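Reply to dn_fold:

You asked what the input looked like. This is it:
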Amino acid sequence: MNRTYTDDPDHDYGPTRSQQRRDALAVLELAGQLVELPPSRLAKLDLPEDVVREIENTRKITSHIARKRQLGFLAKVMRRHDNEAFDSVRAALGENRERQRQETAAMHRLEATRERLLADEENALPELIAAYPQLDRQHLRSLLRQARLEREKNKPPRAYREIFQVLKSLSETDEAGGEDAGDAEA
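and this is what came back:
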């Protein structure tokens, strides 16, 4: 009788080749994310010394193909360590990604509010004032006028940027108070 190696139900053959490839690609992706991190954030992560050294080497390389090859080597060095060694790093990167998405969404909401104020001041400004009674109305109206003039005369958008900063400070004081800034801008 011919038996193949898969006929033994008690033998653990380990992960399949497909699973090994998926795992290797996941480590390669993590290596790419680590190389793209700023040095200040990288220093906060708990990484093995040889991995940090290879990340620094990879950052020095500018040639696309050489960098890709070095990134593969970095992933190989990372695979030498236990998977658990990078669990905290994956968790930190996941949390940071979510926080960045939230910050980007908040910034887009502020930009939309600024554009709405410039396009339809008569309706948008009273809503904003109702939501933020502490708002300096005169200053904001002055900034809106200046921003429109800057657009018409093709000047640098100083007032346009300052409007964003005013809205951002309102949003930050609102978040500190525990209220939802998204309701005020709707």
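Residues 33 and 93 are 8 Å apart (CA to CA).
Hope that clears it up.
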